[in-house]
Amino acid sequence: xxxxxxxxVQQTLNALQVGSVYALIAxxxxxxxxxxxxxxxxxxxIFMVSTYxxxxxxxxxxxxxxxxxxxxxxxxxxxxAMVGTATLAVIIERVAYKPLRQAPRLSAVITALGxxxxxxxxTLAVIGPEPRTIPPLFPLVNLNLSGVxxxxxxxxxxxxxxxxxxxLDTIVRRTMTGMAMRAISFDKTIxxxxxxxxxxxxxxxxxxxxxxxxxxGILYGMAYQLDPYMGIxxxxxxxxxxxxxxxxxxRGAFVGGFILGFVEIFTPVFLPSSTYRxxxxxxxxxxxxxxxxxxxxxxxxxxxx
Amino acid sequence: xxxxxxxLEVYYGNIRALAGISFQVDEGEIVTLIGxxxxxxxxxxxxxxxxxxxxxxxxxxxxxxxxxxxxxxIVDMGVAHVPEGRGIFGNLTVLENLRLATxxxxxREEIRRRFKRVFGLFPRLEERKGQLxxxxxxxxxxxxxxxxxxxxxxxxxxxxxxxxxxxxxLVREIFRTIQEINQTGTTIxxxxxNARMALRVANRAYVLETGRITLSGKxxxxxxxxxxxKAYLGG
Lengths: 305, 235
Ligand SMILES: Nc1ncnc2c1ncn2[C@@H]1O[C@H](COP(=O)(O)OP(=O)(O)OP(=O)(O)O)[C@@H](O)[C@H]1O
Ligand SMILES: [Mg+2]
Prior knowledge:
Low-confidence stretches of chain A: 300-305
Bound molecules: adenosine-5'-triphosphate, magnesium ion
Number of strands of chain A: 2
Strand order of the largest sheet of chain A: 1-2
Helix content of chain A: over 70%
Oligomer: heterodimer
CATH topology of the domain at 1-78 and 196-235 in chain B: Rossmann fold
Largest sheet of chain B: 6 strands, mixed
Order of helices and strands of chain A: HHHHEEHHHHHHH
């Protein structure tokens, strides 16, 4: 392949990799917004905690030296991080957000920011500031496909993200819990009259959204470094993804995540340095909020969560 | 006695909406609660369903105190509520609206039976089962609201102004359906501003005025009462 084409294909692949992580995290923002019309600003830090849970699980499993197959280690790490993160999010909702459900939305948003700062500092105090990497869970191979390099990590990240998105889409469209979530997003006051325990559905939403963020966390942690403040920037980018796609709209979060992935990877291609990428991302957010406040797919009433 | 309400007092902040009302509903009856705007009719139904808390008094259903229960458990105990304004989920299909109302039912055979009953009563809903709730006409939405309450399998159905916004023909149709539902064993507590129709179908009636029950009795007698005629039957 000619050089410009391989570059384009290579960068597209990189954009898909980054974008799928944003998409996975964006889902949590959008789901919580869909049912509570609240932005859970602690979500980026919940994602950060999930990467550490994955880090410790992987280190422990590998330290056992039982010669488990890589797939078993990978799936166990994933499961541990998902369950741990979901539990954390459900506790946060019960303790910090639920008492404020009747209060003005702003109170809950400020509380969420506070919870995020708590998680950052708790991690900093307990685990320390030094960056860490999740040990390789399966053989790292770089395949050279006529000039385009594809790593096994890249394949796993994109593949797992797509699978998770399909599963979530199915849950929301086909299961009773998903139906209840969509009903709550339309009119929360009527849902109890259907015999639906609304609090349990809200817990399920937090659990699901953060378990998905944990999948993103493990995938991210296999490719990049972890530190207690990593959730801030990634959280913002995922939040912008959710808004760009149309907050409250699940498919919108997928689309928004990939758009932001492309912004991140292609900004340095067209602008002199990667320091412009936040500028581009936030400009995109501003333009969209001005011209299409409900986001790209956001027809809020019809297709919400 | 199926439902027994005693000295029920309900406040919104400092505003008293119900000033200690008492009434009963027996098994198999159609009881109507009529009253003007703001009398407290919806408040009464919403308190029975557990959507708003009571300040004092009691709500007893089949011997159990409902005031201690969350709303979803009250539904499971057998109280179905067709809310004011219908409360259809516009982003869900007709089928999904109905299915959601069986949330706590695990027995698939039972769910199938309920669908069969509901589609027998409302064939129009079956024709439109794939359509989104928001795209139904007002009359169809009201049918769906009643159908959805039936899907919860309640023994007692609370109906909040089912005639609101419907043409006279549809009003008659919906009242006929209410009687049909009653004849197949569901007790009905009907809240209405359309006193004429409500008094025609009810076995007993209460008049609610600014949070107080001021009259009660047989609908035929009530319809002859000059005050009721003046206030609710247009002279
Ligand atoms: N959420 C609320 N907050 C404050 N006051 C309320 C609220 N809901 C109802 N009220 C007040 O309580 C009183 C009773 O209201 P309710 O809705 O029960 O009346 P209603 O008899 O159903 O009237 P309508 O026929 O208009 O539906 C009214 O004065 C109303 O203003
Ligand atoms: Mg009312």
